[in-house]
Specification:
InterPro entries: DisA, DisA_sf, DNA_integrity_DisA_N_sf, DNA_integrity_scan_DisA_link, DNA_integrity_scan_DisA_N, RuvA_2-like
Order of helices and strands: HHEEEHEEHEEEHEHHHHHHEHHHHH
Radius of gyration: 28 Å
Number of strands: 10
Largest sheet: 8 strands, mixed
CATH superfamily of the largest domain: DNA integrity scanning linker region
EC number: 2.7.7.85
Keywords: ATP-binding, Nucleotide-binding, Nucleotidyltransferase, Transferase
Helix content: 55-70%
Oligomer: single chain
Number of domains: 3
Pfam families: DAC, DisA-linker
Protein name: DNA integrity scanning diadenylate cyclase DisA
Length: 354
């Protein structure tokens, strides 16, 4: 789950991404080799901070890239409303609390970081010497990279993720065969969960980069969406299949969150599933039987509540394969047609994997 502050920071990054009017103004300032300090504040709150945002000229005009660029030629900071739709003042002298800690060295960036922390607002600093845009918001900092470098980084990462996803899908196909046969080594399950969580983790690491790219990152966003398609659902269902104790979908998601934070090795993952193991050999030697949630949901396409009824009756997918339609249709929610369709599909899978 995304923390509120992280979600807020994401929204601020979107305001400064390529394709927005604000980004055009920042690019113009950079190309002219000008520095700038831009404060975004609630317009109604502006008068309250007269001791911090001192002097300057009240502008009170609608924002445009051209206006912001021209005002950046003046000394002092520019103050805009928090939605970046209005320029409130320019040539403003900023006097933040000097006791607020800062890791920055340059005067402009020290001021920006302290002000963002003190008022809990967004402040953007543009370095005249390095031509770098830095965003400060509350106690967060985000440095915008060179767009070509970010595009290359994102492209290379997604290329790798696509290969990982292909491997993950192949592993699931092999798992189908083992599941129908009713004998699955625990380490095979853990390896699949490890690969899936690695894909999620690496994807998370570039999501902000893609947001930073704005309109330039649309293709990357589509490619990443395809990589992540149904991944979380699949991992959740695998956990429901192989957890030592029968868990609900919400409990499986909590276990998945735990797996995102632990070492990506089979022993910690096996323990997260509830198994008492101490080394990888024990994990490899442990044979488990799947309940069947994943196959019933993704291969047979029946709703979760009916899957739960089926699994409660048969306990494992290999037992379900051995039954007949007359027995299966006794399960609540399973009629004659659905029973025959389920068994036909399961046997097709078994035949396909032989």
């Amino acid at each position: 789950m995304i923390e509120p502050i992280e979600q807020e920071l994401t929204e601020k990054i979107k305001l400064l991404s390529p394709g927005t009017k604000l980004r055009k103004a920042l690019d113009d300032i950079i190309h002219a080799q000008l520095g700038a300090l831009i404060v975004f504040i609630d317009e109604e709150e502006f008068p309250r901070y007269s001791n911090i945002l001192q002097a300057g000229f009240r502008i009170e005009c609608a924002f445009s890239p051209e206006r912001l660029y021209e005002l950046s030629k003046m000394d002092g900071a520019i103050v805009m409303d928090k939605n970046a739709s209005k320029i409130l003042a320019a040539n403003v002298h900023i006097v933040p609390d000097p006791g607020i800690p800062t890791s920055e060295t340059g005067t402009r960036h020290r001021t920006a970081e302290r002000l963002a922390r003190q008022l809990g607002v967004m402040v953007v600093a543009i370095s005249k010497r390095r031509n770098v845009v830095t965003l400060y918001y509350k106690d967060k900092k985000y440095v915008f990279g060179d767009i070509n470098f970010v595009l290359t980084k994102v492209g290379q990462t997604i290329n790798a993720l696509e290969r990982f996803r292909e491997s993950f899908d192949r592993d699931l196909e092999l798992l189908d065969k083992l599941e129908i046969e009713g004998s699955v080594p625990l380490d095979s399950v853990c390896e699949i969960l490890i690969r899936g969580t690695e894909i999620k983790s690496i994807s998370s690491s570039i999501e902000l980069n893609i947001i930073e790219l704005g309109v330039e990152g649309r293709l990357s966003q589509l490619r990443l969406r395809e990589v992540l398609k149904d991944l979380e659902e699949l991992l959740t269902l695998v956990i429901m299949d192989y957890s030592k104790k029968d868990v609900t979908e919400d409990e499986a998601k909590q276990i998945l969150e735990t797996m995102m934070r632990i070492d990506h090795r089979v022993v910690p993952f096996a323990k997260a599933l509830g198994y008492d193991v101490v080394n990888s050999q024990q994990v490899s030697d442990t044979i488990v039987r799947p309940r069947g949630y994943r196959i019933l949901r993704n291969e047979v396409h029946i709703p979760m509540n009916i899957s739960q009824n089926v699994i409660k009756s048969f306990r494992s997918i290999d037992q379900l394969v051995k039954t007949n339609a007359n027995v299966l249709q006794r399960v609540e929610g399973i009629g004659d047609k659905r029973a025959k369709a389920i068994l036909r599909r399961l046997r097709e899978i078994k035949k396909r994997r032989q």
